[in-house]
Amino acid sequence: MRLTVFAAMFAFLLWGAPAFAGSAPDFDGDGISDGIDNCSTAGNTDQDDTDGDDCGNLCDADYDQSGVVGLGDYGLFGVAFGGSDSLYCHTEPNPPCSVGLDDFGFFGAAFGGAPGPSGTTPGTTACPL
Ligand SMILES: [Ca+2]
Ligand SMILES: [Ca+2]
Ligand SMILES: [Ca+2]
Ligand SMILES: [Ca+2]
What we know:
Layout: H1 2-21, H2 71-80, H3 101-110
The structure holds calcium ion (4 copies).
One calcium ion binds next to loops.
């Protein structure tokens, strides 16, 4: 019995420990660790960030960079609707993209809130202005 426990501990040290040592928190499981994920709550392996504000498209409906998703963004989204501007495409890989009802659903869910969270802006939940 004691030998079995010892063997199990040895096996863990041999194969298990390196796996734990190299892992970092990855809330959304997209392979990008939270600290460097530009949209840490949604899987976005491509890290698309069309406007370059360090907030990935999948977390960023703040098109006018005001810090909140509001009426100004709604107006911009309306103009972009039906087009292919990747800034407004939240639900599909870019490019190509088509701004449609699925993206409007994303926008509606984000309305009234702040963009983000982005792991590339530590200590904040919003993306930089
Ligand atoms: Ca992640
Ligand atoms: Ca992510
Ligand atoms: Ca962005
Ligand atoms: Ca805004």
